[in-house]
Amino acid sequence: MATVKKLSSQTAVTTINANQKFPMTDPNGKVTLISLNDLKTALLGGANLNQMYDGVFIMYHRKSDDYPLMVKPHKWPSLQSSGEIADGVVVVEGGKILVVAPTEASLKWSSAAISGGGTTTGDRVTAMNDWNGKASTAKQVAASTSAAITNTASYAPGYCNLYSRANANGKGLTAGKWWLPSLGEMFMIYANMQKINYCLSLINGATQLAETWYWTSTEGSATDAWLLTLGDGSTGGWFTKASTTFRVRPVSAFIS
């Protein structure tokens, strides 16, 4: 009867370093040690991970001189370790540049029905081509009244307008530089969601985008506003501003 040899128990590991080697056995039973870099190359088939994230960057205001910069994702961890604070994730696509905030909230759009003065349409195609989030949010905040509140952090337009990201010197994309994205801008986020979430995973304290509904600044009427779900790209312009709570993710521009 053959003797069965029981291998000794091994400690599971969740991280590896560049100095460690991995045993690989060929069809003839020969064992070869392979480095971490060689293993990555073999698994990726020569693909460059950095190229997979073309078009997204992490923005920050350098603490030494408050100068705004955006870097490739793989450059961020060392900068963050040195004390830099991320403003957000920059998406560059189709001649447009959008900065996506690291965090979000779940809020109503307003406290009551209100014509905010932003882009207003009942037509889906027109709504999808709305890129006027900044101007619309400014009008919606200005339209706030005691009877129909939009300008506080409890409601979508006000929350975005008051949102702030700053470095150790208090400089960055501070309040007044953010807005509630339009439906067109939310579609840009949807199209790049996985890349954005990868960048967000590198930022301390960031919240990843979820496959759920998000408010936009594109209005359907005084009572309703448009939303987009990042789950399957569905849209809707019939959601009541004052009674339904959905996600709110501020956006900005690459500005000083």
Summarize the structure.
With 256 residues, the protein is of the alpha+beta class. It is built from 8 helices and 14 strands. It comes from Segatella copri.
What does this structure look like?
The protein has 256 residues and is an alpha+beta fold. It has two domains: 14-47, no CATH class; 52-252, no CATH class. 23% of the residues lie in helices and 25% in strands. It has helices at 36-44, 49-52, 76-81, 124-128, 133-142, 156-162, 183-191, 193-202; strands spanning 21-25, 31-35, 56-61, 68-71, 86-93, 96-100, 105-107, 165-166, 172-173, 213-219, 224-229, 235-240, 246-248, 251-252. The protein has a five-stranded antiparallel beta sheet with strand order 4-3-5-6-14, with helices on one face. Strands 10-11-12 form a three-stranded antiparallel beta sheet. A hairpin with a 5-residue loop joins strand 8 (165-166) and strand 9 (172-173). Helix 5 (133-142) crosses helix 6 (156-162). The longest helix has 10 residues, at 133-142.
Report the portion of residues in β strands.
Answer: 25-35%
Q: How many domains, in number, for the residues?
A: 2
Order of helices and strands: EEHHEEHEEEHHHEEHHEEEEE
- What is the helical fraction, as a range of percent? 10-25%
Span between termini: 77 Å
Radius of gyration: 24 Å
The shape, in one word, is: elongated
Q: Strands across the major sheet, in which order?
A: 4-3-5-6-14
Total DSSP E strands:
14
Organism: Segatella copri
Protein name: DUF1566 domain-containing protein
